[in-house]
Known about the structure:
Blueprint: H1 8-20, H2 25-36, H3 50-74, H4 83-111, H5 120-126, H6 133-155, H7 159-167, H8 169-205, H9 208-232, H10 239-243, H11 248-253, H12 255-267, H13 275-309, H14 329-344, H15 346-371, H16 381-402, H17 411-416, H18 422-448, H19 455-476, H20 496-523, H21 525-552
Amino acid sequence: MPRVSSSPGTLLRGTLARIDAHLPTDFRVLYRQFLLRVVDLEALSIHADVIGYLGQFSGILFMFSLIQAIGAFFSTLGPPPPPSELVVLAWHTEQSLISLMMLIVGLITVIGWDSTFPDRRDIMVLSPLPVRPRTILFAKVAASAAILGIAVIAFNGASAFAWPLVLAGFPGILRFSPALWFTMFAASAFLYCAVLSVQGLMALLLPRRMFLRLSAVLQLVAFGLFLAVYFLAPNLPTVADFSAPQNQSTILWCPSYWFFALFNQLNGSLPAGLGWLALRAWIGLAIVLAGAAFSLLLCYVRTMKKTVEEPDLVPGAGGLHWTPRFGGVLQTAIVLFSFRSITRSRQHRVILAFFLSVVFAIALSLLRGELNTPAGRPIDEDFIFPTLLMMTFAVIGLRSVFSLPISLTANWVLRTTQLCSSEKYVAATRRTLLILCVLPVLFATALLSLRFRPWTQVAGHLVLLASIGCIFTEISLIGFYKVPFTCSYLPGKSNIQFAFWGVVIVLPLLGISFAPFEQQALNDPLRFTGLFTLFTAVDIGLLIFNRRQAHAAVLYFEELPAEIITTLNLISPRPSTPKP
C-alpha cells in the first residue's frame, strides 16, 4: 500500500486541487498561476515546488499557533483566578491575538505588494487571449484571498480553539469561538483592503512611472508602520485603561482596538461605554471594502491601457551626480551595485525586509523599554541580548539576499569585465556587508544606548558588538566566491522550516548564554581585555582563511547541482584466486 504523506505542502496541494475542480477552466488556470506567483518565479528554478514552499510557511504559522495553544493549557494548571483577574487575562489575550494576526496579515500584504493589480506581463500575455478583464481581476483577488485565508487558518488553527476553551469554558465557547474567527477574518480583510485602496488611488491619480517609484517607498513605509504599531501600541486590559485620557488618541487611530471591541460586541462582553469603538470597526470595514472594490474595478478598466503605453523606466535626469567612494574603484562599484539592487528590486527588498523586520522589531521593543525605565542605569542583559540578535539577523539577512540574481541575462557584462583577482571581489563583498549591515546596526545601538551610564560600558559594548559583526561577516563569506546578485539560484538546498526554527532556537540560546558573560566583562577591565582579544584573534584568523581561499578560488555565475553517479551493480566482482 503506498504511503500517504501528511506534510503541510501535500495537504495544501490536495485542498487546492479539490477547490479547482469546481471552478471554470479559464478562471482555474489564471487562479493557479497567480497563486504560484506569490513567489517570484524568475528567481527560482522551473522545477521549484512553490506549493511546497507555501505549505512550509503555513507549517511555521501553525507551529506558532500550537505553541500558543500549549501556553493556554499551561495557564490552567494553577488554581483558578478570581473573576476580575480572569477578565484582565481575557482582554490581554484577545488584544494580543488580534494585533499579532493583523501584523502577520500586514507583512503578507507587504510581501505581495502590487500582486493584485495587473502588470505589464499580465497584459502582454493575456490581452491577445479571449479572457475577460473581470476574469483576470477575480482570479487575482481569489489568489490573494487564498493566501490570506491560509495564513489566518494556519495561525489560528490551534490557538483559536484552546483560548476560547480556557477563557470561556463550556457552553461559552459556542459563542466565543465563532466571534473570534469572524473577528480574525474581518481584521485581516480590513488591513488588506486598506492597502489595496491606497494603491488603487495612487494608480488612478499618478502616472505609472511615478506610481512605481512611490509604490516602492510606500512598501517599506507600510512595513515599518505595521511593526511600529504592533510593538509600540500599549495593551489595555481594563475599562479604566480605555477611559484614560492619555490613551484616547491611540484608541482612535489604532484599528486593533476597534476589532477588539468588535469581538467583544459579538461575544456579548462589551462594556456599554465602548460601543462607539465597535462601530468604528464596522464603519472602517465597510469603507475599505468599498474603496478596494472601487479602486480595483477602475484600475482594471482605466489603467490597463496605461500600463502598456507608459514605460516603467525612464532615463535619469541630467545634471550633476555625485556618488560616495567606499575604497577602490571595484569596492565602490560593488557596494553601489548591491545597494541599488536592493532598492530597485521588489523581490530582494521583500526577502531582506523579512530579516530586517526582526531587527526593527527588536529595536522598537528596546525603545519602548527604554522609555519606561529611568535614565542613567548601567547596561544589563536585557539590552545586550537584543542588540546581539540585531547584528546577527542583519548580517544573515543581507548574506541570504546576495544569493538571488537580479538579471541573469545581464551577467555577461560582469563576466567580461572581470579584470581583478577573485580575492579583490571577495574583499569588496566583505566591505559591502560591513557598510550595509554592521555599521547601521552599530549606529542604531548607539542611539538606543544614550540613556545608559557610564559611557565606558556603552563604548565597550559597541566595540564587542562590532567585533561580533565582523566575525559573522567572515563566517558568511566562507565559500562565497561570486559577485552579489549575479549568480543563478538553485532552490531546494535547504528546508525552510528547519532553517527557520534553527535560527529561531540556536541564535537566542547563544545570545542568552553570552549576555551575562559580557555584562561581567563590562564591569571588569581584565575580563573585557581578554574577551576583546579573543574576538580579535577569531576575526583575524577567519580573515586570513578567507583571503587564502579566495586567492585560489574562481568566481562562478551559475549554481549547478552536485553531480551524482549512480551504479547499477551489474558487474559482479571476480572471484579471487588463492595464492599458492
